[in-house]
Amino acid sequence: MKIKQLDVISYRAQVSQTVVMSFSSLPSRAMALMRIESTDGDVGWGEIWGNFPAITIEHRARLAGWALPNVLIGAELDLADIGGFCDGLREKLHVLAVQSDEPGPVASIICAVSQALWDLAARKADVPLRHLLNPDARDTVPAYASGLNPTDCLENLPRCQAEGYRAYKLKVGFPGGTDERNIAGLFDLMQAGERLFVDANQRWTLEEAVAAADALAQFPIGWLEEPILVDRPASEWQTLKAECAIPLAGGENLRAFPDFSAALAWLDFMQPDIGKWGGIEASWKIARETLAAGHTYCPHWLAGGIGLLHSAQLLAAAGGGGLLEVDSNENPLRTAFTDLVPGIADGDFHIGEGPGFGAEVPLDRLSAWQTGHETFD
Questions:
Q1: Phi-psi category of residue 295: left, alpha or beta, with phi > 0 → left and psi -120 to 50 → alpha
Q2: What pLDDT, in 10s, does the model give residues 258-287?
Q3: Positive or negative CA dihedral for 301, 130, 38, 363?
Q4: Residues forming beta bridges with residue 9, ordered by sequence position
Q5: CATH of 131-350 given 3.30.70.920, 3.50.50.60, 3.20.20.120, 1.10.533.10
Q6: Distance between CA 326 and CA 323 in Å, rounded?
Q7: What pTM was estimated for this model as a whole?
Q8: How far is it, in rounded angstroms, from Cα 336 to Cα 357?
Q9: What is the mean pLDDT of residues 4-32?
Q10: What's the pLDDT tens digit per position in 241-260?
């Protein structure tokens, strides 16, 4: 078969609840979807990652519409070798990534192609993506409510508990004892058996991270995520691992298989993002390597609903006890999709039995937030 048509659709929703991180904030939520249709009439959907800066999703949607039609429309498609097809795209677009100095945006649009083709393959086989990857995949995965803000985490935790979560992740890296006060307050509200993780979003230097980890070690924290920049020398990560009593997590900002393999020396929880680098096939490989090394695979995702459901399918196929990251903040571009599957109950995310990523795309429901739509054939 060949690729017949490409659609790129962008959305932006203004929200009342700003997502706050140690380096930035998100006053609105955005999403760009990619639809690929084959000459056989099969369709698959993916999502272009683009949270930061706030303007980037519209740029990446336009980049996809500019760069992809010439390399996709009419291309021969072998669904038994999606990874090889996407590797070919990376080769063809490498000069664009280098010349434009935009390797991240180029990687993200190829990741969306990867998601769309895997979704298409699973829908063609009439099975959920997890069963295409692993026939014995589970139908539920443990999940955690991510992105608890430093300013309102204590108010939002009871809501997350009522929604069915039993694990949570707090944004840290804030001055004046804010982190310690928030963590202590959250543990006061949490029930027996519930877990708390923290994410510093690469906030600290090595010395600051060691001091912060020492201060946070008084609490039973499940992991400390990205305490320092991921591109710091391996020696700094090794020092941090040796001096930090809290398990370390990361991976969303790594960009090559050797980097992931090396990071297994200091990361207890590996968190590749299917939208940032490598797509479905790379994350599947990283997940298996992580589990083989005795570590835990926990996919990273903090954007719209299609990428989240793809991540859930991938985690269910991989297994291993990892948790699905589900953004706890207001995001109608996420809930438009999670409302279509069973969702959270007693700490687990129930994926549902729909083919592909697990749901149909609710275009009518999303139309109020649409900012652009291009079709190429």
A1: beta
A2: 999 999 999 999 999 999 999 999 999 999
A3: negative
A4: 33, 373
A5: 3.20.20.120
A6: 9
A7: 0.96
A8: 14
A9: 87
A10: 999 999 999 999 999 999 99
